[in-house]
Amino acid sequence: MAAPFVLYSCLDRIRDYIPPTEPYKKTPYQFEEAFNEPMAQYGMSIDIDSVNFTYDGDYFYKTVPIQCEDGSIITCTYKPTTEGRKSLIQLLEFEQSFSNSDSQTIFILPLLEFILQEFEAPMLEDKDKIIWDSDSVSYNTAVQYCQDFISGADRELEFYVASDKTGSSPVNLRRYTGEERSIRVRIVLFSGHVGW
Questions:
Q1: Parallel, antiparallel, or unpaired: how do β-strands 89-98 and 136-137 relate?
Q2: Which residues share a beta bridge with 79?
Q3: What angle do CA 34, 37, 39 make, to 5 degrees?
Q4: Distances (CA, A) of 189 to 3, 60, 96, 168, 172
Q5: What's the rounded Cα separation, in Å, for the pair 183 and 95?
Q6: Distance CA 35, CA 43 (A)
Q7: Where would I find the beta strands (DSSP E) of the chain?
Q8: In what helix (H) or strand (E) does residue 108 lie, and over which residues does it extend?
Q9: Average pLDDT along the chain, 196 residues, taken 10 residues at a time
Q10: What is the DSSP letter of 19?
């Protein structure tokens, strides 16, 4: 009589070791590994264990500083589904702060490209193709929107990207001005109440 329970328990444990296969689903540790290799060309690395979770009402998140060789101040904020190692990132945000120097390199575009390459990988098969519907944009259009936003003066821009026909993900670009200046890129990777 105990055999079905033992079998279920064994299968449940095995499932914990199988990484998610959907392109938009990554655990925080898969994200860290995916980030550190390609972003090393920009002198960036991240260690998600360097900070603890922040709790804010009904949700929790981590804001992790990105180590930048050129001294840029960039943070990565992510909200996972749970606090466990096998949780999935459902919201991801990069924010770069600026000094008064006009010569500072802006890394928001390569960070957006990283997001699209790692979480929306099917978009790379045809960079001009719109995968889901007229609300979403192609990879090349998303990159162009980001370039235009960085060089312009708009405060906010939102558009949608999709890697399959099941739905799209909102991408939000925001510029903060005043004493503390920054540009932020945020993407909601899959639906559900993410708290922000």
A1: unpaired
A2: 91
A3: 95
A4: 39, 16, 20, 8, 12
A5: 6
A6: 11
A7: 44-45, 54-56, 59-68, 73-80, 89-98, 136-137, 156-164, 167-176, 181-188
A8: helix 108-119
A9: 52 44 76 95 96 88 96 95 87 90 84 94 89 85 96 94 86 91 93 49
A10: P
